[in-house]
Amino acid sequence: MPTPADAPRGPANPRLVLWIIAIGMFMQLLDSTIVNTALPAMARSLGEQPLRMQAVVVSYALTMAVVIPATGWLADRFGTQRIFSLAIALFTAGSIACAASATLNQLIAARVLQGVGGAMLMPVGRLVVLRAFPKEQFLEAISFVAIPALVGPLIGPTLGGWLVEVASWHWIFLINVPVGLIGIMASQRYIPNFLAAKPGRFDLAGYLLLAVAMVATSLALDGLSGLGWAHTLLVLLMVLGLAALAAYWLHALRSPAPIFSPALFTMQSYRVGLLGNLFARIGSGAMPYLLPLLLQLALGYSPAQAGMLMLPVAIAGMLSKRAATGIITQWGYQPVLVSNTLLLGAMIASFALMGPDQPLWARIVQLALFGAINSFQFTAMNAVTLKDLAPQQAASGNSLFSMVQMLGMSLGVTCAAALLVAFSNWFSDGGGHGLPVFRAAFVAIGVMTMGSAAIFWQLEQGRHAVPTRSHAVDDV
Fold first, then answer.
1. pTM
2. Is 310 in the same domain as 440?
3. Where in the sequence is the domain holding 127, given as residue range(s)?
């Protein structure tokens, strides 16, 4: 039975509701990382070059970025239970299609379908928690469903590498199927179906302009990574993307109810935080793609070994969160973000020093340091972006921020793939598997990341209160 969004809160079985939402989020976050370690094996199976497989990752992240802006309105219009159940169904169907793919193009199309479902799982799940639990229970509830944001990246690369070796890459998608089927039945029975009394009119024109801007820009950058497209087409796509973005801004200025209001950008912390997130995440988003390729293609590790070496990154990232709040409170956002962004860029560039003679302990320490610094960066960027949002701006501001997170991840993989191809041609290594190619790519990504410190430099100096967990966005 549909329930108005402002109806009395409190589901009949609150703990079960949280478990269903947490499992749905876990599926989505797991598939954001589990594919990376399996890319070389997938390339061999599909008869492709490993460095052409970036589209498998980009298509998923880019689809999520495109769909996320519409999820809030869809949940208000059709109900949280229906959209959450639909999200799990689409994600499960996409997983089956991925496992059944026989060509790269089929796999990319299946990942798009999977991304549509994944895009709705996290924001609609958060919306259910927001509406189903009273304020005194909200912090505990949102902290519980945030656990998958930590566990998914922790086991994703390792599980992906292990499944490739003991079975085949198809199983990294097939493991979603039984969980998805149970999730569909459980969500239809237990998830409350909150509806907005007046969902309002969806800004379709603005949404289409934003979608065109993201897709055209991403395709233009992806074309640089060896798709064989003519330079004229790439230029036209880039111009189309920039023109669509400018057209959206003009549209939003005169629209009474734009999908993202320009008023969000009147807040200096949100404006700087959002732009800093976008460009800093290009470097962070490139690393889960680059590191497994480096370990397998250039250093000769097996998929399972490469996956195991990603564990220090995730574990150190989890442990570093405890220190973030105290450090930011003591020193303030601006000096912390500027210095940590420079440190993150230097840490990314340091992977150019990786070689076959490097001791294993040094490799583990290097990966752990990167994980700690990268997680600290996410925590600080997330907090500074959302800390000044008013309650009436929270939904729109959080949705735009989630979109930028996924777009940054997509652009990171796209830029990394383009750099690998460019340096492969430069070093006359057509396969792009040699250490010099990867070393040059890490240095370039590191320098790009360090450049984003100039954005955080624009933050107002001073000490600021760190928002509570209820206002923070999970790392992705």
1. 0.84
2. yes
3. 1-202
